[in-house]
Amino acid sequence: MFFRNAIRLLLLLFCPLPALLAQSMSIEEYEPRSSLVVPQHPVPRAKYPFIDVHSHHQTPASPEYLKRLLSEMDRINMRILVNLSGRSGGTLQQGVEAFRAADGKRFALFANIDFSGINEPDFGRRAAVQLEQDVKNGAVGLKIYKNFGMDLKYRDGRRVPVDDPVMDPVWETCARLKIPVLIHTGEPWPFFQPIDKYNERWLELKQFPGRARPPDRYPAWEALMAERDRLFTRHPKTIFIAAHLGWQGGNLAALGQLLDRLPNVYTEVGAVLAELGRQPFTAREWLAKYQDRVLFGKDIYGVDEYPYYFRVFETRDEYFDYYRKRHAFWKLYGLDLPDEVLKKIYYKNALRIVPGLNAAGFPK
User: Fold this and answer.
1) Can you give the C-alpha Rg of the chain in angstroms?
2) What's the whole-number average pLDDT of the chain?
3) Of 14, 154, 221, 317, which residue has the fewest beta carbons closer than 10 angstroms?
4) CB of 320 within 8 A of CB of 264?
5) pTM for the full model?
């Protein structure tokens, strides 16, 4: 301790002010500017019209909001936006009506399950009946949020597991109605790990401590993935879309094994661009192999953030920034995907598995 204090005193006495400031700078303040000079090809507008299957907006949205949204969609070449936050019942009906009034060909809505009655008898059947009515009212899919499997509990304190049979009537209804289930299971693997110098999401966990998933409050990441995979396996006629690359973007080989084993499972790229962009060779090869199973999604809407996705997917650019440092303090690289792969990810796969989407305006 004596020597450490002595060094600090010497720094104060002999170091110029800029050096002192640098010594006291935190990692949150550190924003290095790359000195690398390489070709740059920003992509403000997608090469092909695309469908965002993972977006969240207020339901119902106001006419003014939807008018602005349509203008922004046109700017980046988004043809259809899927709002996953449709809720259910009368709220969903109002959301569908608002979309139809703005432009029914450009918007779609997924329903949600109201889990407030999870402790009531016959919950699964009643939830399935409500879902069927929501589909009749215009919903084209079902979105399951991350609380299912992690935070949702029965009255006696038991956690509701992802593969709980109570929900079987819902999954069976989705299969019968031929609507997909976009399901968010778990969180990134590092959120379940110790928050120490080895955790690559340390900065995000420092800024948002509530995102940590400690073992005294949550099941292990591996346990959640096992429950999810059992659910997918038990309902082979139900189409599932594993959100966020199933939180396996850092292990694409494992995700590929899941897709190989279960043809009813798809995935999407919302909020995990940083995982693909740091492994350009592996990700390009993987997306080419599974080009029929991946959909485009963004998650939290921000019109100025989409071009990062376009640049990763469409160019060969090297070593460029991601839009959110807490997700990735590393740089991204372009994958230069072939046109046919781009078309499938941008719109063809969504048109194939999400019923009711308008195919007008998309190239063959």
Assistant:
1) 23
2) 94
3) 14
4) no
5) 0.93
